[in-house]
Amino acid sequence: MPAKRTRPPRRSKSRKVTDQYVHVNTSVDAFRRILRELRVAARRTELATGLSAAQAFVLSAVAASPGRSVNEIATLTMTDRSSVASIVERLARYGYVTREQSGEDRRRASIMITPRGRRATDRSAPAPMLLLVAGLEKLSAVQLNGLARGLVALTRAMGIADERPRLLFAESAPPQRARRSGARR
User: Fold this and answer.
1) What is the pLDDT of residues 54-102, one digit of tens each?
2) Residue closest to 90 by CA, chosen among 165, 172, 166
3) Distance between CA 113 and CA 175 in Å, rounded?
4) Which residues is 98 bridged to in the sheet?
5) How far apart are CA 47 and CA 181, in angstroms?
6) What angle do CA 136, 49, 175 make, to 5 degrees?
7) In terms of C-beta density within 10 A (0-12 exposed, 13-18 middle, 19 or more buried), how is residue 28 classed?
8) Is the pTM of this model over 0.90?
9) Cα(147)–Cα(131) distance, integer angstroms
10) Which CATH code is given to the segment(s) 21-157?
11) 10 Å Cβ neighbour count for 129?
């Protein structure tokens, strides 16, 4: 007589729903923690420098790699050229960076940090994007791959997969002067 095959016990529908709820809840809690920390870091940056988090991130890329072009800064900041060009324009207008014609290629502008920009980066806590990248770099290759696939799937499920990714906390307001502690309002 052949051995009787046993099937693994079927999971009940209510068990699947419960597991899904737990995973959704855990994911939402993780997003809340991440977003809160990024918002707090953005606010710290803004209060210390008068710059938005996106401006501080681009400025930190210029400080770390002076003389780069807008395209190269876009690559360093993992975003599109038009977002970076807009922020560099604003930073130049307010004296945080300068554009100089490249000695190697006259069609290319080199972006350089000014003393004002250097003071701002020295005062600033790490930009939120730097915190996010540092955290992601601590994940194993397997974890990072799974997270990337899952987040792309989430953007598809939310109907935002085709939106152009922009810098975190980018906005169009010009940089404001940093308030000194104890200053009157």
Assistant:
1) 999 999 999 999 999 999 999 999 988 999 999 999 999 999 999 987 6
2) 172
3) 16
4) 112
5) 10
6) 100
7) exposed
8) no
9) 17
10) 1.10.10.10
11) 24
